[in-house]
Write a structure and sequence with these properties.
With 443 residues, the protein is α/β, with parallel strands linked by helices. It has helices at 22-30, 115-130, 144-147, 149-157, 169-182, 236-245, 261-267, 294-299, 305-313, 325-337, 352-360, 396-403, 426-440; strands spanning 12-14, 34-38, 40-43, 46-49, 60-64, 71-75, 89-93, 133-138, 162-166, 188-191, 204-208, 219-224, 246-256, 271-274, 287-290, 318-321, 343-345, 366-369, 383-387, 417-421. The protein is 29% helix and 22% strand. The strands form five sheets. Strands 10-11-9-12-13-8-14 form a seven-stranded parallel beta sheet, sandwiched between helices. Residues 125-277 form the Helicase ATP-binding domain. Residues 306-443 form the Helicase C-terminal domain. GO terms for molecular function: 3'-5' DNA helicase activity; ATP binding; DNA binding; hydrolase activity. It holds the Pfam family ResIII.
Length: 443
C-alpha cells in the first residue's frame, strides 16, 4: 500500500476524510485493519449520530442525496465538522496497536514552579503513571499551563500519546507556540476550525473539544482545560467525544478555576485544589455597589453616578463588563456622551481582535465587553467593573472568572473588581464567598 496508514490509528473519520482510494480501503477492510459503522443509526427507535451521539430529533434534518439518490437524514449538531448522512459510514482503526518510541529529556523549560504549582504537578505525574483520573481546581492566574509540563514529559518518557483539549479556539492558538518551544523534539498537531494542521499521528495533539469528535481510542493521556467553559460544559456530545478519544487504559486530567459542585463531588479524593496564584498573593475580593435602575439611566444615555465616579478615579486600564450586546451599545453611547474614550467588543465584533490588541498595547484605556472576555485575557494592572452584575448571564463561575482578570501581574497583585448592581443575587454572594474561602485556604 502506497499511503502511510498510520494516519488512521485512533481516528474516527468519514469516507471523504480518508486519504485512500477505494481499492486501498477495500483491502484494509478485508484484512480487518479498519472497520466501519453506519454514521447515523436508530437506537431504541431514535435517530442517533454515531459521531457526536446527538439524539435530539430537532437537530436532524433530511434532503435528497445525490450519493444514494434517496432522501437522507443528516445531523445538524456536528455539521461544522462536515455533513454526516444516513448513507455514510465512519471508519476507525482495528489493526495492531503502534508502539511509540520512548523519548527522554523532551522538556526544554528552566522555570521554577511555585509551591502550589509543584503540588499540582506532582499529582498530575502520579495520575499519568497510574492511568487514573484527577481534577485540578486552580484559581485564575495559578499558572495551569506550567503545572502540566512535567506530566506531559513523563508521558513521552513512557511512549504515551497525549491530547490537550480545550473548548476555545483562542486557547489552542495561544498554547501551540508555547508547547512547540518547550517540547521542541516532539511532533505536535494543533487542530481547530480552519487550522491548516492535519494530524498525521502526532505524539501530542492540541485541539478544540469539537475536533476531538474525530478520534476513537487514540490517547493514553487526555487533559481537558477549562472544563467549566462554554460550549464543553453545556454540550454532552463533547464530553462523549473526550471519553471515546481515550484508550481503554488512559489517564484523564481535568483543569478548572471554577468547577461545578457536581464535578467536585464526583472526583472526591481525586482532586487537588490550588488556592494561590503563582506569585503567592491573595485574590482580590470584589466589592458591591448598588446603582439603582441602571438600565433606565443607560437608555437615557446617562451613566450611573457611582460607575461614572469609579471610571474617573481609575487611571489604569479598565475592563467594563455588561450583560448583553444591546446594553453594550447603550453603554458605549453613554460613555461617548461623557467624553470617555473607549472601545466596545462582543463575540460578533469584526474589530474584536484589533480592539483587544489596542487595549493590551495601552492604546485604549477603557474596553467595554460582554462575557466573551471573561476568560483568556491578561492585562497588567487592570481594574474591572461589571454593570448589571445581577443579570443571570453572570453566574457564579462567570463572576469568579471575571474577578480573576484582576491582580494577575506580580508587580500589581492587588486590584479593583466591583459589581455594580440593582439587587444582589445568590451568584454574586457565592462568588465573593468562594474567593474569600480560597484566600483562607492553605496550600
Amino acid at each position: 500500500m502506497k499511503n502511510d496508514i498510520s494516519y488512521l490509528m485512533g481516528k474516527f473519520l468519514l469516507r471523504r476524510e480518508l486519504p485512500l482510494n477505494e481499492e486501498e480501503i477495500a483491502e484494509l477492510l478485508t484484512n480487518e485493519c479498519i472497520s466501519r459503522v453506519a454514521a447515523i443509526q436508530k437506537i431504541k427507535k431514535r435517530l442517533t449520530c454515531t459521531r457526536c451521539h446527538n439524539q435530539k430529533a430537532h437537530l436532524f434534518s433530511s434532503h435528497y442525496c445525490i450519493t444514494c439518490r434517496k432522501h437522507c437524514e443528516y445531523c445538524r449538531h456536528c455539521l461544522s465538522l462536515g455533513k454526516v448522512k444516513s448513507c455514510d459510514f465512519l471508519y476507525f482503526w482495528n489493526g495492531p496497536t503502534q508502539q511509540r518510541v520512548k523519548q527522554n529529556h523532551t522538556l526544554n523549560w528552566s522555570g521554577q514552579l511555585s509551591r502550589g504549582q509543584q503540588v499540582a504537578s506532582n499529582a498530575i505525574v502520579e495520575t499519568i503513571k497510574g492511568f487514573q483520573k484527577h481534577l485540578i481546581w486552580a484559581v485564575c492566574g495559578a499558572g495551569k499551563t506550567e503545572m502540566i509540563f512535567h506530566g506531559i514529559e513523563k508521558a513521552f518518557e513512557n511512549g504515551l500519546r497525549v491530547l490537550l483539549a480545550t473548548p476555545r479556539t483562542d486557547v489552542v492558538k495561544e498554547l501551540e507556540p508555547r508547547f512547540r518551544q518547550v517540547f521542541p523534539s516532539i511532533e505536535i498537531a494543533a487542530l481547530y476550525g480552519g487550522s491548516k494542521d492535519k494530524d498525521r499521528n502526532a505524539s501530542f495533539v492540541l485541539a478544540t473539544t469539537h475536533q476531538v469528535l474525530r478520534y476513537k481510542e487514540a490517547f493514553d493521556v487526555v487533559i481537558v482545560d477549562e472544563v467549566d467553559a462554554f460550549p464543553y460544559n453545556y454540550d454532552q456530545s463533547l464530553k462523549y467525544a473526550v471519553e471515546r478519544a481515550k484508550k481503554e487504559r488512559a489517564a484523564l486530567i481535568l483543569l478548572s478555576a471554577t468547577p461545578e459542585r457536581r464535578l467536585v463531588n464526583q472526583y472526591g479524593n481525586y482532586l487537588t485544589k490550588i488556592p494561590r496564584r503563582f506569585h503567592g498573593h491573595a485574590l482580590p475580593v470584589p466589592t458591591m455597589n448598588w446603582v439603582g435602575d441602571w438600565k433606565k439611566q443607560i437608555r437615557r444615555q446617562k451613566l450611573p453616578k457611582k460607575l461614572h465616579e469609579w471610571l474617573t478615579i481609575h487611571e489604569q486600564p479598565i475592563l467594563l463588563f455588561v450583560p448583553t450586546i444591546y446594553y453594550l451599545e447603550k453603554v458605549s453611547n453613554a460613555l461617548n456622551r461623557n467624553d470617555i474614550k473607549h472601545q466596545a467588543v462582543h463575540a460578533s465584533s469584526k474589530n474584536r481582535h484589533h480592539a483587544v490588541d489596542d487595549f493590551r498595547k495601552g492604546l485604549c484605556s477603557v474596553l467595554v465587553t460582554t462575557t466573551i472576555l471573561e476568560r483568556g485575557i491578561t492585562i497588567s494592572n487592570v481594574a474591572v467593573a461589571i454593570l448589571g452584575a445581577e443579570n443571570e448571564v453572570f453566574n457564579e463561575a462567570a463572576l469568579v472568572q471575571i474577578s480573576g482578570r484582576v491582580g494577575r501581574d506580580p508587580q500589581y497583585p492587588n486590584g479593583d473588581i466591583c459589581y455594580f448592581h440593582y439587587g444582589k443575587t445568590r451568584a454574586m454572594v457565592r462568588s465573593v464567598k468562594q474567593i474569600q474561602e480560597m484566600n483562607q485556604e492553605k496550600i
